[in-house]
Design goal:
Elements lengths: L3 H11 L12 E4 L8 E5 L4 H10 L3 E4 L16 H11 L3 E4 L2 H4 L5 H8 L3 E9 L7 E13 H11 L8 E3 L5 E11 L4 H7 L3 E5 L3 H9 L4 E5 L1 H22 L5 E4 L18
Parallel strand pairs: 2-3, 2-11, 3-4, 8-9, 9-10
Antiparallel strand pairs: 1-4, 5-6, 6-8, 7-10
The protein binds zinc ion (ZN).
Zinc ion binds next to helix 9.
Protein name: GTP cyclohydrolase 1 type 2 homolog
InterPro entries: DUF34/NIF3 (IPR002678), DUF34/NIF3_sf (IPR036069)
Subunit structure: Homohexamer.
């Protein structure tokens, strides 16, 4: 049976921690490197519902996209939800590993899985290539086999992503034809200018704010599609799990992987406002 150290090595081969942003916190959060690992749960967020799922399934390791602790802490007492989570994990011999911005810029990474989920075909290239390797980088640009109206692409993207309360928000003429699409999993505000410069027809990402989006549309930028943050990163989990299982199998190691289907997006419901008329 593989040890946690074996699995961490495999994960860090694909998601090199040196690729992570300087502000990020990736790698092993808790767990004994010599412990044996058989079952691995992949999830976007290290939250209580995911820990419960790991406990119920008998997972030895949870691999999450988002870090539990992004800034320094002086306590893991169970007086906060983070401390409680750490207690639950350690008491039940469950390790926690994070691949965050190093998974965003990997090849393939988070946005490759997102691009395929929303139906982009053919080769994918980074929207913002990494300085040291243009094959890696943030976001991806790909194409649809043929131009379709923006509204139709939005429906296709919605079908390809896991359901969330908020669904997708679309900015731009619903009838405008679109074919060349940029996507970026997670918060993509900072890539608006890059998407405009790339001359794509649509930029699909998450967490877009009013002012940047409004100014972008006023300046005739590409159409925008704003999805739930969790939904844009969730497709990566299956890719990461599949890679880990097959890379381990190639080395004669058998691990069982599972992708969490618990929706951990922060927004749980919506209410439509009345029309002014
Ligand atoms: Zn994220």
């Amino acid at each position: 049976m593989p040890t946690l150290a074996d699995i961490v090595t495999e994960l860090e081969t694909r998601y090199d921690p040196r690729w992570a942003e300087s502000w990020d916190a990736v790698g092993l959060v808790c767990g004994d490197p010599s412990a044996e690992v058989r079952r691995i749960l992949f999830a976007v967020d290290p939250v209580a519902a995911v820990a419960d799922e790991a406990l119920g399934w008998g997972a030895d390791l949870i691999v999450t996209h988002h870090p539990l602790y992004l800034r320094g802490t002086t306590s893991v007492a169970a007086t906060t939800f983070k401390g409680r989570l750490i207690h639950t994990l350690i008491k039940n011999d469950i390790a926690l590993f994070t691949a965050h911005t190093n998974a965003d810029v990997a090849d393939p990474g988070v946005s490759d899985a997102l691009a395929r989920a929303v139906g982009l075909t053919g080769p994918l290239v980074p929207l913002m290539p990494a300085a040291d390797d243009p094959g890696r980088g943030l976001g991806r640009i790909g194409s649809l086999p043929a131009p379709v109206p923006l509204a139709e692409f939005a429906r296709q993207a919605a079908r390809g992503l896991p359901a969330t309360a908020g669904g997708l928000r679309v900015a731009g003429d619903p009838g405008r034809p679109v074919q060349r699409i940029a996507v970026s999993g997670g918060s993509g505000d900072s890539l608006l200018g890059v998407a405009r410069a790339a001359g794509v027809d649509v930029f699909l990402t998450a967490d877009l704010r009013h002012h940047p989006a409004s100014e972008f549309m006023e300046a005739d930028g590409p159409a925008l599609i704003d999805a739930a943050h969790w939904a844009t990163e969730w497709p990566w989990l299956a890719d990461a799990a599949h890679h880990l299982a097959s890379a381990s199998a190639a080395r004669g190691i058998t691990v069982e992987t599972r992708v969490s289907e618990t929706v951990t997006d922060a927004w749980k419901t919506t209410a439509k406002c009345e029309d002014f008329t």
